[in-house]
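BACKBONE STRUCTURE TOKENS:
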Amino acid sequence: MFLATAATPAPSGSAAVYQTPVCTSDALCNQILDWSGGNEWLATSSYVVIIKPLRIAAIILIALLIRWLIHRAISRLATSTSRASMPALLKPLKEKVTVTAEEGQFIPERRRQRAEAIASVLRSFVSAVIFTMAALLVMGELGFNLAPLLASAGIVGVALGFGAQSLVKDLIAGLFMLLEDQYGVGDTVDLGEATGVVESVGLRITTVRDARGVLWYIRNGEIVRVGNKSQGWAMVVVDIPIGFVSSEEAIAVLKSAAETVAHDPEHETGFLEPPDVVGVEQLTVDGAVIRTIAKTTADHQVAIQRDLRRALTESLETSGLSERIAASRLLPRSAVPPSWMGGGGASSPEQPGGAT
């Protein structure tokens, strides 16, 4: 306890300097005592009244400054990832390989969306860490004993870790899904039980709307495989049965029709490679099947596939091959039905006497 003794001025030339036993070893106490004209209570309470609030304010200001600087760095990094000149070290592994110009034109937009999602997660994580550390420092300044608090927090963390394993699994899976750019909003994906268009992507839940309009909520930790139909390029495959007509003639007709679709201004930017009629794909009891393939962008796959089917079918109709194809599938049959069907033909083994 400080002793309440009267402060006595000591001669110091032209100004009086107050000294008291409670301030003999504290320069700040002596300075406050001198400024206050001998106010001993203010001098002895200077640490609590002045120093602690200043230190708490400094902790808060420094925490806000550090948070602002880190958020700014994260935002600038996220912005730089959408540039084509981004360093290869920061690119996903699958983008480090050589890609064509057509494939590369779709990478910046997807990279921008992924970078924004990751930046949002990083900003939230940084804010939580910085504010937690600042709160602990402020509590330490106020005189709280942090050891029991930290021990209790550790026990609670272990309990939550055992009780919320599925939640942690979902969060970690969602984070790696964003880092690896497995899919994004607007992609058409196959997630096993649900197939459709991704409407939202979060750290814990991914929502997918299927072709019937059903909205599926899928936990990221339960996704074991992802089939993305919207990344990079797509392949259009059209099989046309031609019966038993000449395959060479049918291939020539189909090639001409495929080239017409490729030169259509509506699909000029959709084709990455010219369509190709590869030839006879298989033989069935109904004849040969000719396969036509085309490498397209993922966004134009459905439209090109429909127009290519229509053009190939119309070309067979225009060239007259469709009639020959239909005729080649007809099998020769007797004009007179068997006797067991009510005709006048020979009797069947089941009806030796024939029809009556």
Q: What stands out?
A: The chain has ten helices and ten strands. The longest helix spans residues 46-80. Confidence is low (pLDDT under 50) at residues 1-22, 84-90, 93-106, 345-356. The longest strand covers residues 233-243.
